[in-house]
Amino acid sequence: MLMLLAGLFVIANAGFAQTKTSFAIRAGVNFQNLNGEDMEGRDLDNKLKTGFHAGVEVDIPIASEFYVRPGALYSLKGAKYDDNADTKFNLGYIEVPVSFVYKPMLGTGRLVLGIGPYVAFAISGNVKNDDMDMDIEFENEITLQQALSGTPYAKGFDAGGNIFFGYEFGERFFAQLNAQLGMVNINPKIEDVDDDDIGKTKNTGFGVSVGYRF
Known about the structure:
Layout: H1 2-15, E1 22-37, E2 49-63, E3 66-81, E4 87-102, E5 105-106, E6 109-129, E7 132-135, E8 137-138, E9 141-142, H2 144-147, E10 153-154, E11 157-169, E12 173-182, E13 189-190, E14 200-213
């Protein structure tokens, strides 16, 4: 990945000297959910939970008005379950998106349209309500005994797709609306249990960002 980004950087600067590579900081609010099915095939009855994201990104020009945008962000995801105790699932990820971006001139600034994949690595998680605060354990595979122990488990890896659009005000400030669809079942595999019987849980959500470009 680093070699690919380095190659893109060299090509961009050789072919588009008039267009600068630019760095930015970005932060905003997430509205996240955990969608899917439980072990009996019923749709999960979760609700949106508010989180946040913050990080850095770089726009590397590859053609006139077209860019590759790698980045690194901390993103707090999860969901809320409206039981009597108002249970919240919190999942903290280091997220690495690589987006393809189109930025045509519009008025005094630029319209921003982007799409691309992301990978994410969980670094924290818990399940909280009025009576409980339990850390989520991150494992790719667990035993049946672990699954029945009451301890919450999830995979530590996630991946999916991003799509966003926004507007750059001049050359510095920008705002955008983000949407995200997780494509990895974050339920860990259970030993000696068929994959169809462990349920499916995927991160989904949208958010709003503001940022500053250097």
